[in-house]
Automatic annotation (TrEMBL):
Reaction catalysed by this enzyme: hydrogenobyrinate + 2 L-glutamine + 2 ATP + 2 H2O = hydrogenobyrinate a,c-diamide + 2 L-glutamate + 2 ADP + 2 phosphate + 2 H(+)
Protein name in the entry: Hydrogenobyrinate a,c-diamide synthase
Organism: Litoreibacter halocynthiae
Domain CobQ/CobB/MinD/ParA nucleotide binding residues, every copy: 8-186
Top-tier EC class: ligase
The gene coding this protein: cobB
Record key words, sorted: ATP-binding, Cobalamin biosynthesis, Glutamine amidotransferase, Ligase, Magnesium, Nucleotide-binding
Pathway it works in: Cofactor biosynthesis; adenosylcobalamin biosynthesis; cob(II)yrinate a,c-diamide from precorrin-2 (aerobic route): step 9/10
GO biological process: cobalamin biosynthetic process
Length: 427
């Protein structure tokens, strides 16, 4: 592994097993030296698995929401470690209308090669044709090798490998292993912190990768260095951040921005009924509060401290955090749980509806005044939302959406997850 080099793991489509392949590579390569993971696009869950696999911080690299210099700076990290970026969806899949924000965009920005993971299930010689098509589709993106996944037998492997050209080497072929399948939930994988056997599972996946992938043949190019991106500052000296299994969806790069700008971050656990620390700003990230609604509703020390903090500190809740700030949250079984009551909001999971997509966000004033890029991904239904909206919003295509979120005094929130603050207004 050459310092400062990296590659991107991608696939023709979702469901090929590229997350498992990425985690196996990260754990296997960490046995040889220092390696870091990164995730293309908006994702809170996979990065925590990356960190568990290699013991290094993982960042999100979002080519739709971030400027290229921001992506390069995040990819640099704190040193020159080998970087393995996991793509999202298919290699060229991004936001409408033109696919902006794809994993291919990240590879191009960083100047790193792509290793394509192809699911060999139900396929033979066609695997080579798929790989060649992806390699030729965009000349600025280099597909430098292939890892075949879910191979049924040695005979099947021979069939899959047969027609690959020399310029598209097969770096490995992983046999089908149903016992290594990872459980999922509606927002993706079950969280890393919820799996007690995670370390053993990662070792098993790494052993499989080491046995069937030529790690010495992995391609890499040096990521381009850049000047530091200006920190996205919040004008608060002390920021309290909820952090536990119910509030796990905080982007590390945003918290680092706040630290770089001079803020001190204090974390606390609502699930443990911890009080909000003394602060100037409270951030309630998203997560899975609906799975813990009864417990959260009964945690009076947390709820009372949240209400008290709203009198002296500004407060912002994203998605799950937004729902906690409301009046009630109805769980999937139809049970209504009382929340903080700081916003005139009632939400429910009794009837789920998917809300998904990138969002351009504008707030004229208040704690979240500014112009942002973000995304929405949740299944909650809004039963009631009364008050001043927080954001004016459009989707990735520029279509005007209904105003998002609510603001009441010093308290605000929305279902949008902020990825980055822009220095100039959005169109």
């Amino acid at each position: 592994m050459t310092p400062g080099h990296g590659l991107l793991i991608a696939a023709p489509a979702s469901g090929t097993g590229k997350t498992t392949v990425t985690l196996g590579l990260l754990r296997a390569l960490s046995r040889r030296g220092t390696v870091r993971g990164a995730k293309s696009g908006p994702d809170y869950i996979d990065p925590r698995f990356h960190e568990a696999a290699c013991g290094q911080p993982c960042v999100n690299l979002d080519a739709w929401a971030m400027q290229p210099d921001r992506i390069r700076k995040l990819a640099q990290g704190l040193g020159n470690d080998f970087l393995v970026v996991e793509g999202a969806m298919g290699l060229f899949d991004g936001a409408m209308p033109d696919g902006k924000g794809s994993a291919a965009d990240v590879a191009e920005i960083l100047g790193i090669p792509v290793v394509l993971v192809i699911d060999g299930s139900g396929m033979g010689q066609s695997a080579a044709a798929i790989a060649e098509g992806f390699a030729r589709h965009r000349p600025s993106v280099t597909v430098a090798g292939v890892i075949l996944n879910k191979v049924a037998s040695p005979r099947h492997e021979v069939m899959l490998r047969r027609h690959f050209p020399d310029h598209l080497p097969v770096l490995g072929a992983l046999p089908r292993r149903a016992d290594l399948a990872h459980p999922s939930r509606h927002l993706g994988l079950v969280q890393a912190s919820e799996r007690p056997d995670l370390d053993q599972w990662l070792d098993d996946v790494a052993d499989l990768v080491e046995a069937h992938v030529d790690l010495d043949a992995l391609p890499s190019n040096a990521a381009t260095r850049t000047k530091l991106h200006p920190a996205r500052a919040l004008p608060y000296a002390r920021i309290a951040v909820a952090q536990d299994e119910a509030f796990a969806f905080a982007y590390p790069h945003m918290l680092e921005d706040w630290k770089t700008a001079g803020s001190t971050i204090h974390t606390f656990s609502p699930l443990k009924n911890e009080a909000v620390p003394a602060c100037d700003f409270v951030f309630l990230p998203g997560g899975y509060p609906e799975l813990h609604a009864e417990r959260l509703a009964s945690n009076s020390n947390f709820m009372n401290s949240l209400r008290n903090a709203s009198q002296t500190a500004d407060m912002y809740g994203e998605c799950g955090g937004y729902m906690i700030l409301g009046e009630t949250l109805t769980d999937a079984e139809g049970t209504v749980h009382k929340m903080a009551g700081l916003l005139a909001l009632q939400t429910s999971f009794a009837e789920r509806k998917l809300h998904l997509g990138y969002r351009n966000l504008n707030a004229g004033d208040g704690p979240m005044a500014g112009h942002f890029k973000g995304h929405e991904f949740h299944y909650a239904t809004t039963l009631k939302a009364q008050g001043a909206p927080l954001f004016h919003a459009t989707d990735a295509e520029g279509t005007v959406l209904a105003p998002m979120g609510l603001r009441q005094g010093r308290v605000c929130g929305s279902f949008a997850h902020v990825i980055d603050r822009l220095d100039t207004p959005l169109n």
